[in-house]
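Why do we bother with a discrete structure alphabet at all? Because it lets us treat a fold like text: something you can write down, compare, and reason about line by line. To make this less abstract, here is a complete entry for Fructose-bisphosphate aldolase. Read it the way you would read a sentence in a foreign language you are learning: slowly, and without expecting to understand everything at once.
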Amino acid sequence: WRAVLRIDKQCPSHLAIQENANALARYASICQQNGLVPIVEPEVIPDGDHDMEHCQYVTEKVLAAVYKALNDHHVYLEGTLLKPNMVTAGHACTKKYTPEQVAMATVTALYRTVPAAVPGICFLSGGMSEEDATLNLNAINLCPLPKPWKLSFSYGRALQASALAAWGGKAANKKATQEAFMKRALANCQAAKGQYVHTGSSGAASTQSLFTACYTY
């Protein structure tokens, strides 16, 4: 269940954070009552020109509210997964940050808000390019801060872009499509263990930003 929160002048409001947190918690409770593992997805989308520090502040507020709501709804945390955004600057921010800076801000926000009982955190890619999503995940797993959870990925666009470019809508490109998808999947598997090495040989599709304004569904 995905809850979208946007950073703007007065947003996200306290009410928006609380209502979305309660909706996620209710969803998680219903999942567990029916034998399912809920993937709780509070996403602070990257629209805007805010810096990374402001994104970290908002992300911490959102995650703290989510885990308060999960507790209020008696959700068994050991039977959940979290699918959050990484802490990054807004898409229109002129200041650029390294994967190591993103990793430090992201793990700090998580360590302050997510209980150690949560077994796994699977990041969304949030419109990053395939390569940026992989590099950031790798840096997160190499971050020297305490990380009591498994830190992995649950990417959509950042797994599919190169494969879709290779396919081009033609059945004859099936093998190339599969190879492109497997290459990116392997890269992210390595990044989830902090073992990814950037070779600089990535194709154009893997370095292209996948940002879509107001990406809600």
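What the structure line is telling us, in plain words: The first helix runs from residue 14 to 33. The mean pLDDT is 93.
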